[in-house]
Amino acid sequence: MKTLLIAGASAITMTTSTLAADIVDTAAEAGTFTTLIAAVEAAGLVDTLKGEGPFTVFAPTDEAFAALPQGTVENLLLEENRDQLVSILTYHVVPGAVASSDLTEGMTAATVEGSDVTFTLEGGAKVNEANITQADIAADNGVIHVIDAVIMPGM
Asked: Given this model, what pLDDT does residue 20 score?
């Protein structure tokens, strides 16, 4: 019986490890995006970011959200501010899979929100003024680039 359980557990582990993770699950597994995940949930965007894609997500860390003025995150998570939250979050998403090797100096890309973001490479890759601190985290429906600031669309 003990051998059967061990064999069964090994089979489950092997099956689970071969499954790809979508953008939301990949970000959740990293453990440094709890605020982003909470915001995505509050905005009702989980199903979208678990969708077929591909998507490129510029993912602010918990520290990036913490650097916003005090009360900003809590205010954005209120139901009455959902449209603003959706706008900010979708500004961090570009349709298609954009690898760091695709970026060029001064390149722009249209976001899901509708506005463009601009990339610079001098002194390290940036999207708008946010540094890309870790690039090319693969997910089964796109790619995540970690950024050190929350970028804001022109509102």
From this structure: 64
| The pair of three-digit structure tokens given for residue 116, joined into one six-digit string | 């463009």
Give the per-residue pLDDT at 139.
Answer: 95
- Residue 145 identity: H
**Of 102, 100, 108, which Cα lies nearest the Cα of 132?**
100
Helices 34-43 & 82-90 angle (0-180, nearest 10):
120
Question: What's the predicted TM-score (pTM) here?
Answer: 0.85
Place of tokens 């995940």: 37
CA distances, 39 to each of 2, 30, 142 (Å): 44, 16, 19
What's the CA dihedral at 87, 90, 59, 66 to 10 degrees?
A: 10
Q: How far apart are CA 78 and CA 38, in angstroms?
A: 12
Low-confidence residues of the chain, pLDDT below 70? 1-20, 155
The CA dihedral of 34, 36, 42, 45, to the nearest 10 degrees, is: -120
